[in-house]
Automatic annotation (TrEMBL):
This is 2-(1,2-epoxy-1,2-dihydrophenyl)acetyl-CoA isomerase. It comes from the Bacteria. InterPro entries: ClpP/crotonase-like_dom_sf (IPR029045), Enoyl-CoA_hydra/iso (IPR001753), Enoyl-CoA_hydra_C (IPR014748). Belongs to the enoyl-CoA hydratase/isomerase family. Gene3D superfamilies: 2-enoyl-CoA Hydratase, Chain A, domain 1, Lyase 2-enoyl-coa Hydratase, Chain A, domain 2. It comes from Rhodococcus maanshanensis. Keywords: Isomerase. GO terms for molecular function: isomerase activity.
Length: 265
């Protein structure tokens, strides 16, 4: 099994893999130690060598993530090469988030700007508060998006709204972000981390194999016709019914008891 020793930004809290993507250092800009360590841990979860049943993305500071460290961009000897390296590192992380079959929850306090907003869009469930604000932030420094935002955002809000948000570098408040589907829901500002952890723990106790099937179906739906998706749903639900998770869920329902999904998945 993979050990997390020496990974300062990543830890297991029970069955929840907690990844700190930003810290109070450098104004809660994206922390690439956290990104790189998160990639390593997520790849281990996907490979079955790290026993996590959900993932929690968190910022340690006033913000979830205020975006890239613009002062570091300015100080780089070769800005193009430096940003290329950072983007590739971030994109390894986004690919690892996309590949992992357990639910990914984001605790979005304060600002989620630039890459921070991209990571919100990449998450399965995102919890914000009344003071949460999101912003692409790329046009303000003359950059184009990274972190998958040009792919995820149109799929969340539609292509026309994505154009408006990206081109105008819109600041999106918490209520509007929920209305658009970028955030899942809001809680009190002082409850965001606690509620996100509660959701992650609840998902970690749930039917992991079913969650994996749901994520696969959703991820592949855009490339299929309705008829093809119906065939995929048939194959998926029949496999679930024959597997230990489905058997336990149905048996628990019939026996009027709480299902225990912790074994056999």
């Amino acid at each position: 099994m993979t050990s997390l020793d020496g990974l300062s930004h990543v830890r297991l809290e029970g069955d929840v893999l907690r990844i700190a993507i930003a810290t109070a250092d450098n104004g809660t800009s994206l922390d690439f130690d956290g990104v790189s360590q998160g990639t390593t841990a997520l790849q281990a979860v996907a490979a079955g060598t790290l026993a996590a049943r959900s993932v929690l993305l968190i910022g340690e500071g006033a913000n979830f993530c205020a975006g890239g460290n613009v002062r570091a961009f300015a100080a780089a000897e070769n800005r193009g090469e430096f940003v290329d390296y950072l983007a590739r590192t971030l994109h390894d992380f986004v690919r690892a988030i996309d590949a992992v079959e357990v639910p990914v929850v984001a605790a979005v306090q304060g600002w989620a700007a630039g890459a921070g907003m991209s990571l919100v869009c990449a998450s399965d469930v995102s919890i914000g508060g009344p003071s949460t604000k999101l912003r692409p932030a790329y046009p303000s420094i003359g950059y184009t998006p990274d972190g998958g935002m040009s792919w995820t955002l149109p799929r969340i809000v539609g292509i026309a709204k994505a154009r408006e948000i990206l081109l105008t570098d819109a600041i999106i408040g918490g209520d509007e972000a929920v209305r658009l589907g970028i955030l899942s829901r809001l809680v009190g500002d002082d409850e965001i981390r606690e509620e996100a952890l509660r959701v992650a723990r609840t998902l970690a106790a749930g039917p992991t194999a079913a969650y994996a099937g749901i994520k696969r179906l959703l991820a592949q739906s855009g490339q299929r016709s309705l008829s093809e998706q119906l065939d995929a749903e048939t194959a998926s639900i029949s496999a679930a019914a024959a597997g230990p998770t489905g058997r336990e869920g149905v048996d628990a329902f019939v026996e009027k008891r709480r299902a225990d999904f912790s074994a056999g998945q």
